[in-house]
Amino acid sequence: MSVSMKDLDPAFRGSGQKDGLEIWRIENFKPVPIPASSHGKFFMGDSYIVLKTTALKNGSLRHDIHYWIGKDTTQDEAGTAAILTVELDAALGGRAVQYREIQGNETEKFLSYFRPCIMPQPGGVASGFKHVEVNAQDHETRLYVCHGKHVVHVKEVPFARSSLNHDDIFILDTESKIFQFNGSNSSIQERAKALEVVQYIKDTFHEGKCDIASVEDGRMMADAEAGEFWGFFGGFAPLPRRAPAEGNEKHEETAFKLLCFDQGKLDPVNYESLAHELLETHKCYFLDCGAELYVWMGRNTSLQERKGASEAAEKLLSDSNRTKTHIIKMIEGFETVTFKSKFKEWPQTPDLKLSSEDGRGKVAALLKRQGLNVKGLMKAAPAKEEPQSYIDCTGNLQVWRVNDKDKALLSSSDQSKFYTGDCYIFQYMYPGDDKEECLIGTWFGKKSVEEDRITSVSLASKMVESTKFQAVQARLYEGKEPVQFFVIFQSLQVFKGGLSSGYKKFIAENGIDDDSYSEEGLALFRVQGSGPENMQAIQVEPVASSLNSSYCYILHDGNTVFTWTGNLTTALDQELMERQLDVIKPNTQSRSQKEGSETDQFWSLLGGKSEYSSQKMVRELESDPHLFSCILSKGNLKVKEIHHFTQDDLMTEDVFILDCHTSIFVWVGQQVDVKVRLQALDVGEKFVVLDFLMENLARETPIFTVTEGSEPPFFTRFFSWDSAKSLMHGNSYQRKLAIVKGGGAPALDKPKRRTPVYSGRSTTQDKSQRSRSMSFSPERVRVRGRSPAFTALAANFESSSNRNLSTPPPVVKKLYPKSLTPDSSNTSSKSSAITALAGSLDRRTQTPTPESVKDGSESEKAKQEEDAKDSAATMTNRVESLTINEDAKENEPEDDEGLPIYPYERLKTTAADPVTEIDVTRRETYLSSAEFKEKFGMTKEAFSKLPKWKQNRLKIALQLF
To answer: Which residue ranges are recorded for the region named Disordered (predicted)?
Structure first.
């Protein structure tokens, strides 16, 4: 469909070029832009067009268009909004999905743009009403009804007892206090979300200055707040049964209706099964599902035809008085997942005459001719090949091979050598931002047997359960490993065959030759990775077709060893090959082969020359994450997507799935039943099979199970994360109520984690692990010694004082801040307060290692105990240094940031007369400098430099958190 200048309204030119919201109000049948400061303010007498532009990870832009119709808007104005959305879509290249939003029946997707809610005000342009301005001085008591677990639908109802019921949540907004009335049949999650509306009303209509009260349905007059609430309704009396909602429509749950709109006529389509082939690219179709009416517009339809279809859809619902039905319009090739799921089958790659990139290029060219900036429309630079791991690389790793329904601990020299016919369990203990983290996972080789897989999952689940679900559990398959797996192993070798009895039994029963790797046999390895902290040697078939110009290879037949360098490889690739050779064939001479100049002996070992690829294997890129709430009932998984999610959407009573395409995270709240926690991995597997987003999820997709309060950095990176929220006790409603009422919340009484011994990576390499210099001459024997590249890298990786962080910023992060460096030249006595607190912190490094770590050899145990002593001594020295440094600053002036000063007894969470109207998350800042020093044993400045976890521990101990 061609787009001409005359078809576009000037107000739409240049829109949709960057991530964010753009809103227009219909005035005199024309779209008028609304400034960002007024976004979220809607008037009942107006109609609006809302454009949501989302910048995707692949560099493209996704557009969603909504037209919102107020209950008092005129029919002509509403029709204009519907037509203009078609024009706006044309201006964006014909790829947006368009939604009709009726006041009071908005989609959750639309409401998610304006969290916590929208509260339309009386007034409008076309209706002749005047817009009502909010005036805190002239407050009118109002009653609102709220419902929704993930987004809140808010509607003002008459201020009368008859409006109340047992099923919903009600908010009574009076001049001096806001009451939330919780119907006895409402859920905890709904009550928590409604509190966000209470906070919004307080900030918007009371300038943040009013009291908040919570009233439970059924609580009698003995409760002071309940008595005050019922006093506004003339006293307590039983509530009537809930009457049917006004305008409630019943939608038929029978077969869908498919209608064809062609040349101004609307005709039904007869079909036996709803198939994709029924949709013709030069026509428009209506799929009537009762609650939704989908309008599908063929790619080869004109702009006028699409406008006609839009008008016909509005008329169809108007004639049948279906005011609550959602209209969702889309263009061929950009259908929603929900629409495609209505059909028996849907092709994965429809044959479009206009490709996505061609369409964007044409729109960009059109806007460029208009003198507009088209940078936002062009595809951004591709994502980096290797994703960031977001995990610390200095932790303690243990690996077990599953064998005969049990697990056998591997030595440190063998724990990075996997066999494709076996299953493995690994445990990785590492320091997080404010606490130690634990990852327990299973790895399934491609040729491993089902019995071993079941055993490995069972054993790993018991290990996770023994940590009281504080460990993250992972299920990984060979060939689909996430980057976190590779960086914790750093150097990994995957061999053919297997060593477990289950694998041996399988090949014997099926008459399969055992091709397990032998050091004396013929083997070919492909070397891959992004650096010394992420490199692998994968055994492949020893034939020429296994070669690839983009990789380096190691070929050996007994003690005859060759290295092969592809023409498209880099110096880093060659360095990694040298490192892997030190593991696979240590102390053995090798000859270097460069692509194009191989010796006859090399080709002879591979069975002769043949064609091979030059294309580098590209890691599957992570897509934009999607969050789903999950309910597992009688083996069936029900999911619901949460749009524009935040950390607050993770309710402690529920299970959620974060779908990143390359990985699936199952998040389990602290108050979820233990039986459900044990099914977390099953929930993830069922979700992969369900493939709700129709993204062709592989059955081997990595699955991580995460428990609230133990979220790893590679999960929290998808949120604006506040770890302090996991320290709060109670259900989601109680937590939110404590925050809204300004009283704060005590820490959650969770069992303390056992502190692992961070022995990290060994700084002394075995002889077999020392790198060698590179030699590219086919006949030249490799020379011993470190290459210059390796020497430079080793300086960073082997320093005992540095930590190898694979996450940005790319600076070396130490286990403790520089301000805690011990200074043996200064000594000073500690105050009694800091002595007690420091002692509790010292004990963190002396706690025994988890039971699962104790399976190592006696020599390893002894080393761990010695490391633990050194670690404890180091912590003690650092705390002493802190005290020394702070004592030296005792007489320096303090800056109290201009905040009011309160006594310690009124700032405690258990205070009898607590201070109000303060930031409850920073209670310590309201102490005077002298009292702060007395309680904490240090100045405010020194306290601010401590790690977050240490600050929180001190605050908890002093009842300030």
So the answer is: 744-783, 799-900
